[in-house]
From TrEMBL, chain A:
Primary subcellular site in the record, as a coarse category: cytoplasm
Cellular localisation: Cytoplasm
Enzymatic reactions: N-terminal L-methionyl-L-tyrosyl-[protein] + acetyl-CoA = N-terminal N(alpha)-acetyl-L-methionyl-L-tyrosyl-[protein] + CoA + H(+); N-terminal L-methionyl-L-lysyl-[protein] + acetyl-CoA = N-terminal N(alpha)-acetyl-L-methionyl-L-lysyl-[protein] + CoA + H(+); N-terminal L-methionyl-L-seryl-[protein] + acetyl-CoA = N-terminal N(alpha)-acetyl-L-methionyl-L-seryl-[protein] + CoA + H(+); N-terminal L-methionyl-L-valyl-[protein] + acetyl-CoA = N-terminal N(alpha)-acetyl-L-methionyl-L-valyl-[protein] + CoA + H(+)
PROSITE patterns referenced in this protein's UniProt entry, alphabetically: GNAT (PS51186)
EC identifiers of the protein: 2.3.1.258
Domain N-acetyltransferase: 4-156
Highest rank taxon of the organism: Eukaryota
Pfam families referenced in this protein's UniProt entry, alphabetically: Acetyltransf_1 (PF00583)
Stretches assigned to coiled coil: none
Name of the protein described by the UniProt record: N-terminal methionine N(alpha)-acetyltransferase NatE
Gene Ontology molecular function, alphabetical: protein N-terminal-methionine acetyltransferase activity
Upper classification of the organism: Eukaryota, Fungi, Dikarya, Ascomycota, Saccharomycotina
UniProtKB/TrEMBL annotation, chain B:
Keywords, in A-Z order: Repeat, TPR repeat
Chain segments carrying region Disordered: 606-640
SUPFAM superfamilies recorded: TPR-like (SSF48452)
Gene Ontology cellular-component terms listed: cytoplasm; NatA complex
Name this protein carries in UniProt: YALI0F12221p
Spans of repeat TPR: 84-117
GO molecular function annotations of the record: acetyltransferase activator activity
Source organism superkingdom: Eukaryota
Amino acid sequence: MSKVQLDDLTPNNLGMLKRINSVVLPTSYTDSFYTEALTVGQLAKLAYYNEIPVGAIRCCLEVAPEHTKPSRIYIMTIAVLSPYRENGIGGMLLDHIERYAAETFVPELSVHALTDDTEVIEWYKKRGFEIVDEVKGYYKRLTPAKDAYLMVKKLKKDQ
Amino acid sequence: MTARAPPANRKLSNMLMADFKQCLTLYEKKEYAEAIKRADHILTQKPDHGETLAVKGLCRYHQDSPVEGRSLINAGMKNDPESYIIWHVLALLERSEKNYHAALKAYQKSLTIDPSNQNVLRDLSLMQIQTREYEPLVITRRKQLTDKPEIRANWTGLAVALFLKGDYATAARTLAAYEESAPEKEPKDKTQSDDIENCELALFRNKCLIEAKEYDLALKDLEELENKTSKRHIPDQQSILEHRCDIYIRQGKTKDAQRLTRVLLRRNPHDRALYRQLEKVLGIQDNNQLKSVMYKKLAQKYPRSDCPRSMPLEFLEGQAFDEAADAYVSTLIHRRVPSAFMNVKHLYKNPAKALSIGAIAQRIFDGATEDLSGASDFLWSACFLAQHFSKLGDQNKALKFIDNAIEHTPTLVELHLTRAKILKRMGAVNKGAEAANAARELDLQDRYLNTKAAKYTLRANNADDIEQAIKLISMFTRNDTSGTGVQDLHDMQGYWFLSELARRQRRNGDGPLALKRHKAALNVFSEFEHEQLDFHLYALRKGTMNAYIDMLQWEDKLYKSKKFIRSTRGIIETYIALWDTKPDCGCGAVIPGSFPLKAVDYNASTTVKKKKKKKTNEGSAEAKQNPNGLPTPEHRHDADPEGLKLVKNVDLLETALVHAKKLAEVGDSLGLVFQAEIYLRQNKYMLALQSLNKLKASDAASPYASVLAKVAEAQLNGDDSTAQNLKDMTLKMLPKLFNETESDAVATARLAFSVPSYKELAGELLKGLVSENATAAALAVWAANSLGLELEDLAKEQYPELEVPLPN
């Protein structure tokens, strides 16, 4: 059995998501970001290594204007504690979302990445994401505000 | 003795007699209002009918009018002192009041008038067990058996009584006689519960035979029991084996005892007592080398058991210890066992072993990489080392290890709990509470974490700690009666919470409320005692004598519990301090002055507040707050939310004395010291001296007690100046008396507060406390503040992180 396992987000382990995001990510998130994370079902997951939570993903569905069905899954946060990186834990979290997208017929995934964070951009590219747009000053809460790429991965229809 | 003719006023007309009978039936159905109606009807025609008065009294008692109830029964007794009904009624009242000795006497009196009453006979036997009057119990039970030999419970009842009295042989004979006379059920009619009952009975008889030293008979019985039914049908194989083994040990048949101990070990290789037993029957307790071989073999045989690996660490020394400890500790760390340190903590009494264990963890720590492959070793060895250094007193080093680990993996709850403990030991109680809460927030469904967070919060120094802690515990309790879980924790006998709350209230200077909580904590124990009553009959009916006797033996030790002693000390200390704070105490005390307590308004009327509360209770959720902003937990039934009834119109010293006597009774030597302190305050020097002499005789006399004795002597001789000098001496000694550091500070501050000439001395004593440990230092600083002394700088030198309690 793999030492890494994914588990659902619940009100009781929400503190883990908060803790992981707060130590890994440069921006901080509001309380509503976390309380709403409990309503997205399979779009939020914790990754456990030896029964310790070490990574987490939290996404949301985007419905394009004048559409009724969701057009893409947007990855709001994905984080893995630094000692546990480069062991496929982030990939597992992403795979889970991709699988979910395929099952629910959502055609694409999207994410924002810091323009100067080449490591992260490469990570997404390796997994089939492409840069489709550059948003100036996207990270308003950082001082100084930083730019972001919008990256998208189109999922194959027959998957 | 022939029955005397009933007094003229007892006789009722046939009509009224029918009413009286109905009245009794209604009482038994608990329809008290209806019963009282009948009684009143009789009383309008025969106002001095004693039995009616008594029954009415009992009904009134159960309608929450205990005072009226008792006076009605007394009136009835006066009119008709020879009625067995009235004595029976009185017995029921005393029993409900939990005055078991008084109830016993009343039952006895009722029985001398009407010797054939089976109910009274049965209830008398219950009181005799409850009060542990085993000799008369045997007589009662024998009478029950003679009257109704067809009931099985009467036979076992007599046997249990004989067993408790220590007459094991007769107990065994009684049970044998029953088995001979009782018809055995056909196998096809037997149910499983019959099997269990028969086995229980047989095992009980076996226990009697063993205690009576009838070993051969006992063995024969066990054999029969095993042969009687196929093995599958013997419900309690384990006990049969244990009995057999016990017999072999008592007989000195070591070979058989060894064999059976090994059989038992195979059944449960996790029972430490069995390993010790094996050492003993092998005769190698004192031979470390042989013991070591034995444990090595057993460790191979039972690879999943902790015992054969950890137990040798207690006796091994030197290199042998190092090797065994290495194997044991490194396995625990590699396996990520959260309790690893707890498993070896007891070995730290030996400094060499402590160092050796630390070195093992250090080696794992040094060898672990911080990446994924080494993460687990790194975390758990760091956590272990943090606990190791904390235990050795190096809190700074401990904190470094734990902070390092938390930075690596902030989602491991054990790390945060360890951090909380280290911070507490540094005196940083507020930060400690924060750390415990951080652990809790990571896993909200873990009750242990919730409990820890609440406890650390109660020990912190923020103004709203009590509210916060109650909010925390209420996440895991039933809150339907009052919105918070305090009531539920009373109902669930949550001793830890009640006692922590009491200590916090005491620290807050709220004497009455502290008393109330301490009382609630003690109540847990008296409930244990009173609830026995339900089992005296039940166990006989169900035929579970073995568990029942275990329970009685456990109850006999109940009040010797450390927890009971701690709470009782707390009550006595608070009562004495309250007395010392009273403006009119006259300060005839040996130790004038008091620990900071808020002034209590002894004239405050509780009824006004109650009215106000009733009004607010009907309102919104805010109603659950009393004027202090604290939740009033038991507001639904609580007639005394602030504990004022415990101090108003109460003789503080006499009440303290009752508790001090109980404390002495259970063997705590402080009980006698407290008694002396109380007597000296009451100017009863002779009694003080007697208490202290008793202490001397018990071989536990402290220097403090001998000085107290001299004070009493000097007072008796009218030698005031000597007495005064001696009082000065007691001041120096008192802090050394208490083993709990909190009490040290409490006592020191109590004796020094408000006595200007003692300030300097008190300062010296408090300085001594600072060097004890962080908790003591925090309290010493706090006590010093209330004396207008400055100790904070000195304390901060030793404990830079020290957080000092807020002044009241």
